[in-house]
Backbone:
């Protein structure tokens, strides 16, 4: 990457050793970690190697390519294998990261996962802002008065961690209690939603989930009892 933020594919093509341009990337829910691997196998963070995804904008098809830059000196086709991550931290200067995948399939997998992580973070941020805009007294009092949101029972157990709605995360529960939380209109938690949708087939079926959602959808708001 040049100082102007544009990819210098000529540099990639002129590398004498392939490993000189390789990076080890690790994607977490809130960060992208970029490292080099030493000869002894140890990982070393690159400059700006810890990237906070909340500050990122993903560009799957970077602009400014030309015909001469689409292949390296070995003749390998580089077209459409690169993608750009623009990082704009609040407390420091913005910078650009450009990565080149080994195949279109690999690029698609990485960009899809990175995009999903960024979307999840921003959804969580919107949820948090929505609750912060409300009275700071109302939400805690509502939680305190509803023991089902924090007290263990025969069919539900809680962890000590809070989710994005400032209520205790569920450690495990019966299908009925999980569906109850899924359709609780007070807590539209992106954390719980993602976890449930990724794992519900382990303990129930799509028919059961859809029947529950249809029942809630057809029921008027006034008919849902308040705890």
Residues:
């Amino acid at each position: 990457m040049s100082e102007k933020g544009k990819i210098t594919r000529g540099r990639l093509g002129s590398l004498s050793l392939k490993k000189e341009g390789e990076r080890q990337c690790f994607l977490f829910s809130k960060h992208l970690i970029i490292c080099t691997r030493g000869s002894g196998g140890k990982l070393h963070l690159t400059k700006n190697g810890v990237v906070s995804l909340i500050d990122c904008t993903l560009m799957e098809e970077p602009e400014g390519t030309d015909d001469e830059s689409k292949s390296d000196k070995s003749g390998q086709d580089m077209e459409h294998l690169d993608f750009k991550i623009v990082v704009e931290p609040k407390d420091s200067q913005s910078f650009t990261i450009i990565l080149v995948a080994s195949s279109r399939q690999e690029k698609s997998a990485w960009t899809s996962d990175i995009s999903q992580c960024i979307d999840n973070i921003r959804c969580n941020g919107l949820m948090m802002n929505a609750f912060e805009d409300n009275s700071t007294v109302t939400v805690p009092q509502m939680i305190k008065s509803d023991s089902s949101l924090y007290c263990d029972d025969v069919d539900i157990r809680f962890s000590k961690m809070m989710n994005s709605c400032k209520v205790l995360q569920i450690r495990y529960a019966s299908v009925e209690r999980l569906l109850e939380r899924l359709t609780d209109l007070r807590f539209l938690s992106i954390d719980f939603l993602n976890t449930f949708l990724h794992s519900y087939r382990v303990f129930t079926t799509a028919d059961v989930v859809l029947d529950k959602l249809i029942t809630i959808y057809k029921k008027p708001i006034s008919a849902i009892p308040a705890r």
The beta strands are 24-27, 31-37, 43-52, 56-59, 82-87, 95-100, 156-162, 168-173. The chain is about 35% helix and 20% strand. Confidence is low (pLDDT under 50) at residues 1-20, 65-75, 130-140. The radius of gyration is 23 Å.
